[in-house]
């Protein structure tokens, strides 16, 4: 069977997109970033006659700082994501409506998180701004063969869900009910965005099973979080994984497996030879990921045991 072109896929799926845009609009709640920020904790910095940031002013742990910075810089790169999505979706009709609405909703996340961090002096605002400039100047660059609607809609399905998990767990480690409430609100948005993309990707699997399966396998076997190029991403990512904000277990159990189950990927019988081959490749990858999860958890447990023993020695 001949592959459909990008335009043919978008045209065929437009009615489904329209249904899902309407569904999203009926469920999305309007909210205002200023309602989630403790403005009474704010004061001027030196340029306005006040005092500049000092590490002593922050009430956040190192883990919470790393997670907040990583999540905020990820949200900051919105113009780059908008470009990728708008290039691979249509610019009119339901597709255009979705791209605009999604971009406007996502923009609130960066606004509210930055306002919170600056007002509460949770992190160094100068270092944060320098990192934002670097990260946004670089933008996000998908691999050369990641073009087209199918690859991009598969990627954002998993990425939105991963971001939801990361925001939710970051709220918990901040040890501040205001931050927790704010990030619950952001995570709720990410969940609705994920549902739109998951439904569109599921419809694509029904329309062009082999093409969609090949795209899906390409995305999951090469998956990286969208903030991968930001300053200190590796260090902060390791810290976040070590403390259960976003680790391999969560990636497999809370992101990858639930979505694949929703689409019945391993139960379907509508694949041709290329789809079957891609599914087998994905199955082998998921099995390896399961082994990697156990290995990572064993290493983490040993590391925590060493740190605990070292702490006991120092107290003795």
- What form results from the Cα inertia axes? globular
Helix content: over 70%
Report how far the terminal alpha carbons are from each other.
72 Å
Structural classification: mainly alpha
Helix count equals 11
Cα-atom radius of gyration = 21 Å
Q: What do the pLDDT scores average to?
A: 93
Strand content: under 5%
User: What's the main sheet like?
Assistant: none
Counted beta strands: 0
Give helix and strand order, one letter per element, not per position.
HHHHHHHHHHH
Low-confidence stretches: none
Question: Topology of this structure?
Answer:
Blueprint: H1 6-27, H2 62-76, H3 78-88, H4 93-120, H5 125-138, H6 149-173, H7 177-207, H8 209-221, H9 233-242, H10 248-262, H11 273-315
Helix pairs in contact: 1-4, 1-7, 2-4, 2-6, 2-9, 3-4, 4-7, 6-7, 6-8, 6-10, 7-8, 8-11
